[in-house]
Amino acid sequence: MSIFVVHEHHATHLHWDFRLEMEGVLKSWAVPKGPPTAAGVRRLAVQVEDHPLDYASFSGVIPEGSYGAGKVEIWDQGNYDLLARDPDRLLFILRGRKLKGSYVLVHTSGKNWIMLKRRARQHDNQIS
């Protein structure tokens, strides 16, 4: 199983950084309103640069004048199973303290994706 982590990031604007371990790095998205915890809720997720795996345990303060300056806390973490992947869609099951169940990330345009918690009865190959 691979790991995921969600950082609550008090930078210029509060947002959550959602990160999935893939290809030896943490693939990362900034989620301005936080990851959805209820089925059917859609949240904008802006893809940002990959982070090293050791960043999964980071909690602390990024100093003023540095990129991403501000307080960073681990909001949730756990393991996940990747069920499907193509260039415009990631389907996975999260097993964290706060985020549990089936989720999908759908690429919309540029760096923009939509993160959605799926209903328990949906089949694995559906996006709605």
Task: Walk me through this protein's architecture.
The chain has 128 residues and is mainly beta. It has one domain (2-117). Helices cover 0% and strands 62% of the residues. The chain has no helices and nine strands. It has an eight-stranded antiparallel barrel with strand order 1-2-3-4-9-8-7-6. β2 and β3 (25-31) form a beta hairpin.
List keywords for this structure.
8-stranded antiparallel barrel; disordered C terminus; 128 residues; single chain; globular; 0% helix; mainly beta
Mean pLDDT: 92
Rg over CA atoms: 14 Å
Helix and strand succession? EEEEEEEEE
| Count of discrete structural domains | 1
Q: What is the oligomeric state here?
A: single chain
N-to-C span: 25 Å
Which class do the helix and strand fractions yield?
mainly beta
Approximate helicity band: under 10%
Tertiary shape: globular
Largest sheet: 8 strands, antiparallel, barrel
Task: Please report the number of helical segments.
Answer: 0
Low-confidence stretches: 122-128
Q: Strand percentage, roughly?
A: over 45%
